[in-house]
Design a protein that fits this description.
The protein has about 120 residues and is of the alpha+beta class. Helix content is about 45%, strand content about 30%.
Length: about 120
């Protein structure tokens, strides 16, 4: 009987922790959405304007555009894939529409298989 009680208590604890974790993620996602909405409301440059500016600077296909805080200001980060298959990031001031920086996106490290 005692073993069953301990098993039940352990299972209840795992379920409670899992529920708290999922609830925390949902709250974090909601907070992030609100932050993005606030940033979008303060940006004078629209996403369409930022994409056009990026394509004027780097020819290719836009694969992503995101509003971020960088360079101590609000910027549009527009990623463009060039004909040479390079991913270029064009940083555009969300207040003035000026191009701040153009750089090649750094390759993200991939997980290598474990050596045996």
């Amino acid at each position: 009987m005692r073993q069953q009680l301990l098993t039940f208590f352990g299972l209840a604890t795992v379920l409670a922790v899992g529920t708290l974790t999922v609830g925390g993620l949902a709250y974090g996602d909601e907070k992030e959405k609100n932050g993005k909405a606030e940033m979008a409301a303060t940006a004078k440059v629209t996403i369409d304007q930022a994409v056009k500016t990026a394509l004027d600077k780097v020819s290719g296909k836009v694969i992503e555009a995101e509003l971020e805080k960088k360079h101590h200001k609000l910027i549009w980060e527009v990623e463009v894939v060039t004909a040479e298959n390079k991913v270029m990031e064009v940083h555009i001031d969300a207040d003035t529409g000026a191009v701040i920086e153009v750089e090649e996106e750094k390759a993200k490290p991939t997980k290598s298989p474990k050596m045996r």
